[in-house]
Amino acid sequence: MNKPRIGSSFDSFLEEAGIRDEVERVAQKRVLAWLLQREMDRQGVSKSEMARRMDTSRSQVDRLLDPKNDRVQLDTLLKAAHAIGRELKLELV
């Protein structure tokens, strides 16, 4: 038996609460951090080695991989992708 939906969609809820953009930004950063860490693990690349490849500090890599830190510059993301042999693609939708 199908029950009728009650209320709005989750996106509508976030929009009504005025937090949709913030929630999406945090989610995107968490996914990027997870993908970078996963690829580093797959390749056996330590944070220190990642910092060396990116020509930056270990603390910068820590900030990059911190899923709560959404203040990452585009050039840092590009360096990180290059450091693990990947390409960063951005898309406007």
General description of the model:
By secondary structure, the protein is mainly α. Helix content is 62%, strand content 0%. It has a single domain (10-83), classed as 434 Repressor (Amino-terminal Domain) (Orthogonal Bundle), CATH 1.10.260. α3 crosses α4 (58-65).
* Topology pattern, helix = H, strand = E: HHHHH
Tally of individual domains:
1
CATH topology: 434 Repressor (Amino-terminal Domain)
N-to-C span:
37 Å
Task: Please outline what is shown here.
The chain has 93 residues and is mainly alpha-helical. The protein has a single domain, classed as Orthogonal Bundle (434 Repressor (Amino-terminal Domain)), CATH 1.10.260. 62% of the residues lie in helices and 0% in strands.
What descriptive keywords fit this protein?
93 residues; mainly alpha; 434 Repressor (Amino-terminal Domain); 5 helices; 0% strand
Describe how the helices and strands are arranged.
Blueprint: H1 10-17, H2 20-43, H3 47-54, H4 58-65, H5 74-83
